[in-house]
């Protein structure tokens, strides 16, 4: 649901559909709000809407500058940026993908994370300073008491208001993004700073905890001042927690090799098997998915899901071959994280494990990955506990 709008220095820029909706919402808010937050009394109405749309458009240009600041700096450090996608509030540069960032020097990551919010703070400061020095006030209009008689309801008289709005929004965006709440930019800055002294894993865990703590503080402030701030803080808390969980899962999966957790006893079906027979087979074996075989070679995958849309009568006419899907495979020596990513890209729940000669050696499912995460996580806690035991002994003796 993203549309390509431009390419800057070889980086394609996409706009997500939600972004267009927010653009319209912003333009609408600018059109109905009174000075200095909008253009409500500007005449004629067409001038009002042009000002509102122009402000929304320019604001989104500054959001793009924010993302480009991250991306171009990362580019200069030799990191490849696949694309930039503008979502509903702010954007995502493909660099913000933890796997890419993990392999770079923390001080470079710190600069990359800082570049975005810094660009907004600079833009904001410059725009407000422009109004101040040119019109004598950051609002661009020193006094609105004689609004109509002074002709402030015209298009040109409201350009300083537009500058004020853009400046203020950029400052807000910059300061908001710099809050140390992971996965926001400020949280990344914090993580990179911590990573200079600790391992990447410890740094992320600490940054996630600080982010959670900060969201709670923000929520408490919000409850007493502005409920929107409290709601926002709640979302930030959730995203920090999610990011923490995701990071933990990713770290665990990275250390596991596919062949260690795959299922080696694989039930297969022949491509010539009639669909009715296949459905009976599934009822007996109770597995959701099976590799499809032709002359001993694997030719496809079939799941119970694939048979759902086939009606009763057609089940007699079709064979497995007619509805099977293409094989998505992974090498036995690949990491579980590779398998996880592969499942994500192809939106499948299981992969066939094929060795270098394309022989099937096993099958790996999403459930296998989840079980592995669960077991590794518990096992890891167990080893930590046993490491702590000698330290605890003297305490119990005393
Ligand atoms: Zn950013």
UniProtKB/TrEMBL annotation:
Per its UniProt record, the required cofactor names are: Zn(2+)
Q: What is the lineage of its organism?
A: Archaea, Methanobacteriati, Methanobacteriota, Stenosarchaea group, Methanomicrobia
What detail does the entry give on cofactor binding? Binds 1 zinc ion per subunit.
Recorded topology in the membrane:
Multi-pass membrane protein
Respond yes or no to whether keyword Transferase is given for this record: no
InterPro entries (alphabetical): CBS_dom, CBS_dom_sf, Peptidase_M50, UCP006404_Pept_M50_CBS
Stated name of the protein: Zinc metalloprotease
One Pfam family name is CBS
Keywords annotated in UniProt: Amino-acid biosynthesis, CBS domain, Cell membrane, Hydrolase, Membrane, Metal-binding, Metalloprotease, Methionine biosynthesis, Protease, Repeat, Transmembrane, Transmembrane helix, Zinc
């Amino acid at each position: 649901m993203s549309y390509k709008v431009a390419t800057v220095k070889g980086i394609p820029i996409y706009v997500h559909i939600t972004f267009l909706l927010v653009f319209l919402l912003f333009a609408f808010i600018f059109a109905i709000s009174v000075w200095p937050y909008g253009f409500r009394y500007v005449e004629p109405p067409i001038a009002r809407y042009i000002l509102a749309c122009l402000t929304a458009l320019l604001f989104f240009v500054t959001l793009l500058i924010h993302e480009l600041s991250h991306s171009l700096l990362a580019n200069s450090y030799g990191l490849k940026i696949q694309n930039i996608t503008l979502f509903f509030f702010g954007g995502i540069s493909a660099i913000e993908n933890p796997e890419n960032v993990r392999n770079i020097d923390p001080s470079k990551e710190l600069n990359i994370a800082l570049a975005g919010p810094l660009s907004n703070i600079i833009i904001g400061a410059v725009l407000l300073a422009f109004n101040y020095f040119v019109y004598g006030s950051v609002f661009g209009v020193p006094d609105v008491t004689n609004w109509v008689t002074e002709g402030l309801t015209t298009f040109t008289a409201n350009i300083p208001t537009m500058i004020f709005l853009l400046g203020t929004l950029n400052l807000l965006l910059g300061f908001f993004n710099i809050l140390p709440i992971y996965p926001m930019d400020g949280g990344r800055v914090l993580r990179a700073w911590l990573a200079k002294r600790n391992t990447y894993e410890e740094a992320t865990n600490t940054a996630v905890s600080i982010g959670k703590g900060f969201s709670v503080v923000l929520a408490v402030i919000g409850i007493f001042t502005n409920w929107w701030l409290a709601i926002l803080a709640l979302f930030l808390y959730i995203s920090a927690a999610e990011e923490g969980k995701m990071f933990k899962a990713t770290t665990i999966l990275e250390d596991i090799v596919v062949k260690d957790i795959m299922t080696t006893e694989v039930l297969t079906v022949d491509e010539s098997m009639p669909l009715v027979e296949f459905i009976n087979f599934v009822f007996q074996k109770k597995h959701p998915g099976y590799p499809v075989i032709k002359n001993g070679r694997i030719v496809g995958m079939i799941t119970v899901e694939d048979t759902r849309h086939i009606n009763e009568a057609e089940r007699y006419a079709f064979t497995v071959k007619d509805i099977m899907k293409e094989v998505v495979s992974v090498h036995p020596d690949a990491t579980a994280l590779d398998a996880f990513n592969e499942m994500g890209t192809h939106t499948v729940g299981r992969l066939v494990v094929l060795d270098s000669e394309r022989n099937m050696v096993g099958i790996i499912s999403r459930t296998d990955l989840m079980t592995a995460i669960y077991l590794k996580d518990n096992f890891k806690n167990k080893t930590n506990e046993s490491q702590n035991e000698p330290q605890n002994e003297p305490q119990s003796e005393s």
